[in-house]
Amino acid sequence: MSTILVPTDFSKNASSALRYAIQLSKQMGSNLIVFHCSQMSAYALSAATTEEQMTLLLKEDEENKMEKLQQQVNKAYDKLDM
Predict the structure, then answer these.
(1) Is residue 72 included in any domain, yes or no?
(2) Using one digit for the tens of pLDDT, what is the confidence trace for 21-38?
């Protein structure tokens, strides 16, 4: 196994899966890819903001979450590229 893909929604369950994937990646000498995908709901789009504003807010929020996740992983696991 040369690459492990770990999807995340930033939940506790996803964090547990990521910890397991990191350990497996170290044992197997595999690459690790963390992936997050999102979709705006129709409810979110019907709010007072424009679609562009919602997209920007969602993107900024998810980039912050991914950066925080990367910092946590780097702190817990030395020499891990993510």
Answers:
(1) yes
(2) 999 988 998 888 889 887
Could you tell me the two tokens for 49? 């903001």
Task: Dig out the tokens for 28 from the structure.
Answer: 């197997």
DSSP 11-75: SHHHHHHHHHHHHHHHHHT-EEEEE------HHHHTSSS-HHHHHHHHHHHHHHHHHHHHHHHHH
Q: Is the full-model pTM beyond 0.85?
A: no
The amino acid sitting at 63 is E
81 within some domain: no
- What is the total count of domains within the chain? 1
pLDDT-based confidence at residue 72 (cuts at 50, 70, 90): confident
Answer yes or no: is 33 within a domain.
Answer: yes
The token pair at 39 is: 């979709």
